């Protein structure tokens, strides 16, 4: 292996280690079960998962889509890069009496054979893999011909997409080649990533109404405590408290613009997308 190739491999290894550490911070289980629990069942239903299917959930986290897929009677494998999330998912599954496989795996290099699964899912998960094309290629590779791929991704113009855009100037520069996660919430980006591999895309922009937070301050406190990407950005600002304060103000202003009317809720846009493996 050349020196340049070795350097690339080592840089990728370090990047994935940072991603693992980021998602292990805070309490993503709380986010999944308290803030976005309805997304997994929506994706499972839209993807037509049934008891006859062999299902892979990529970047499954704590099982937002894996658990409802298992409830249908399907054979389910939940894969994720972060061991702590998989362990939390195992506990949630056990509490519901569900049996499924939990596999430590990189979405950009899945440890499964070609055309292994009838349905491949990812619920606001694979969008955070830094190299979009590599991840898309892997989702398509492990899906059988005529199998289904189902995705839920935050859109660039929705609240979470705007939140990441707001945090970007305050965060360390991303490594070369890494792409912004909310691009996965654009239909044209999906079709480009899966061109020649997955077709018959059905896409729909939907809104998740989030009523977990009473006001922008409550939202900010919750995300600074529980959500790994937000925690990571604030950690990078530990030596510049004035910048942390400025980010506080920007995020609370952003949150105020996405809700907190009479019902104290927020509306978060996402893209629901299903396609068929060519």
UniProtKB/TrEMBL annotation:
<keyword id="KW-0489">Methyltransferase</keyword>
<dbReference type="Pfam" id="PF08241">
    <property type="entry name" value="Methyltransf_11"/>
</dbReference>
<dbReference type="InterPro" id="IPR013216">
    <property type="entry name" value="Methyltransf_11"/>
</dbReference>
<keyword id="KW-0808">Transferase</keyword>
<dbReference type="GO" id="GO:0008757">
    <property type="term" value="F:S-adenosylmethionine-dependent methyltransferase activity"/>
</dbReference>
<dbReference type="InterPro" id="IPR029063">
    <property type="entry name" value="SAM-dependent_MTases_sf"/>
</dbReference>
<dbReference type="GO" id="GO:0032259">
    <property type="term" value="P:methylation"/>
</dbReference>
<feature type="domain" description="Methyltransferase type 11">
    <location>
        <begin position="56"/>
        <end position="149"/>
    </location>
</feature>
<protein>
    <submittedName>
        <fullName>Class I SAM-dependent methyltransferase</fullName>
    </submittedName>
</protein>
């Amino acid at each position: 292996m050349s020196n340049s190739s070795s350097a690339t491999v080592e840089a990728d290894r370090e990047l994935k280690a940072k991603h693992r550490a980021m998602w292990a911070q805070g309490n993503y289980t709380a986010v999944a079960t308290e803030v976005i629990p309805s997304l997994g069942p929506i994706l499972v239903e839209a993807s037509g998962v049934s008891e006859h299917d062999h299902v892979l959930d990529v970047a499954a986290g704590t099982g937002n889509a894996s658990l409802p897929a298992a409830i249908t009677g399907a054979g389910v494998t939940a894969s994720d890069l972060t061991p702590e999330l998989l362990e939390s998912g195992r506990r949630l599954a056990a509490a519901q009496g569900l049996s499924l496989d939990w596999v430590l795996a990189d979405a950009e290099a899945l440890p499964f054979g070609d055309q292994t699964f009838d349905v491949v899912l990812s619920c606001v998960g694979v969008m955070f893999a830094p190299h979009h094309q590599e991840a898309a290629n892997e989702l398509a590779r492990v899906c059988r011909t005529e199998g289904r791929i189902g995705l839920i991704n935050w859109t660039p113009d929705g609240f979470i997409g705007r939140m990441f855009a707001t945090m970007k100037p305050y965060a360390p520069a991303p490594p070369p080649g890494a792409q912004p996660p909310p691009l996965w919430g654009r239909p044209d980006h999906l079709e480009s990533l899966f061109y020649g591999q997955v077709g018959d895309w059905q896409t729909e922009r939907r809104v998740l109404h989030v009523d977990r937070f009473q006001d922008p301050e409550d939202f900010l406190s919750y995300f600074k405590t529980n959500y790994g990407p937000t925690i990571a950005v604030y950690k990078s600002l530990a030596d510049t408290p004035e910048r942390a304060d400025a980010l506080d103000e920007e995020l609370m202003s952003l949150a105020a613009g996405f809700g907190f009317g009479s019902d104290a809720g927020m509306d978060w846009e996402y893209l629901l997308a299903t396609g068929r493996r060519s």
